From TrEMBL:
It comes from the Bacteria. The gene is scpB. Signal peptide: none annotated. It comes from Sphingomonas sediminicola. Gene3D superfamilies: Winged helix-like DNA-binding domain superfamily/Winged helix DNA-binding domain. Keywords: Cell cycle, Cell division, Chromosome partition, Cytoplasm. This is SMC-Scp complex subunit ScpB. InterPro entries: ScpB_csome_segregation (IPR005234), WH-like_DNA-bd_sf (IPR036388), WH_DNA-bd_sf (IPR036390).
Length: 192
């Protein structure tokens, strides 16, 4: 293993947070970071820790099949209300989205607490303001959302056909996703 690959490995290992290629380059110096990452990913494949990329950021994580060995206390799974789950799905599939757009898709008003819960969990963040009357706040998902759900990017979110095939949509959920798809199509038409 050459010195640059070792420098990239040390940089990622010592970091408390996942790093972008540019951040890795800033610490490890001149060299082909992508080639070094490919080399390291190959070296760590099948080992106790793995080098993974989530949302354009790289970090080491425990191999998923060994994670249970490291848990000392049982983590209580975070239970989201139906409203919070629907809101999170709308934000994930249609970001950036305003509160009014979320309410239009769901067909009911959402309490401020619903967005607060998602922001407290670190899965949703404010993403600026929409140019227009009232300049409403826009919401988007975070890097923590991608990491928590094991997604490399938003493109890895399952489509409606995938959710139907897995039996994860009941008729009510299907209506929400169909409304979301229709809104997305209308938005794309406006952009053209």
């Amino acid at each position: 293993m050459d010195e640059f690959v070792r420098a990239v490995e040390a940089t990622i290992f010592a970091s408390s947070e996942p790093l972008t290629i540019e951040e890795i380059q800033g610490y490890s110096g001149d060299g082909d970071v992508e080639a070094a990452l490919a080399t390291l990913a190959e070296i760590y494949t099948g080992r106790g820790i793995e080098l993974v990329e989530r949302g354009g950021r790289w970090h080491f994580q425990t191999a998923p099949d060994l994670a249970h060995l490291l848990r000392r206390t049982r983590e209580e799974p975070r239970r989201l209300s139906r409203a919070a789950t629907e809101t999170l799905a709308i934000v994930a599939y249609h970001e950036p989205v305003s509160r009014a757009e979320i309410e239009a898709i769901r067909g009911v008003q959402i309490s401020k607490g619903t967005l607060d819960v998602l922001m407290e969990a670190g899965w949703v963040r404010t993403a600026g303001r929409r140019e227009g009357p009232g300049r409403p706040l826009l919401y988007a998902t975070t890097q923590e959302f991608l990491t928590h759900f094991g997604l490399g990017s938003r493109k890895d979110l399952p489509g409606i056909d995938d959710l139907k095939a897995a039996g994860l949509l009941d008729p009510l959920d299907q209506g929400v996703f169909e409304a979301l798809e229709q809104l997305q199509l209308e938005s794309e038409e406006e952009d053209d």
